[in-house]
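Translate sequence into structure tokens.
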Amino acid sequence: MPLSPLEHDRRYGELDQVMRAYAGQPADDTADKRSQALTAYLRQTWHTRPWALAVAERQLREYAHNPPGRLRLRLGEFYPIPDVGLPKGEIQQWLYCLADHIKNSIEQGEVPATAAPATHWEWHTRFPELGQFLGGWFSQDMPDEFDAHDAAADDYRTSTDPQLVARLVGELHELLALDLDESDYALGIAELGMEVDPPAPYSPSGWLALVADRLGAPRANYGSSADGDAK
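Result follows.
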């Protein structure tokens, strides 16, 4: 019978996170070299969920030890490894290679240095609410839905839980603290789902700073009088 969500996460949840890190990236890991995708996974996981690394190592190794047959995959009883561009005969050894790299990283305390995101997965994992904001409010349909960029940002603010708005403001400040070149900021916001240009005359970083200030400003409270007594 198909796996329940709980059983899926228990057996393959972190394995799935590793596989997602390879979306659009080559699975070119070797015994002597980690891929860019695995380095991105290690960097993000070390800095946010270090305990999950041991889970990933175990799930990768167990899956490689006991690969599913076609019938069990068709019945939904096993997690299907997505197409990573490798021949089927090489997948098992590749999984062992990933498990070995993760094990070595844990045992040696080898933590990739903090850096700007290097892959699509890493951009969205590091800046999840910014991805929601840019992909949801600044897609190619934005000019048809809003009069201007400010109107789209205001709509996000009024329709989104204040705690998520605060999280977005924090992510904007974190992104600006990376002090990237403007071309890298343009690449980053495109990776996060923005399909329109920042409004003139702003550069990508200038517009991000403007949005952070706009969304971070206190909301006006029109329900209270000047002396604080509700009317």
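Note: The chain has a mean pLDDT of 90.
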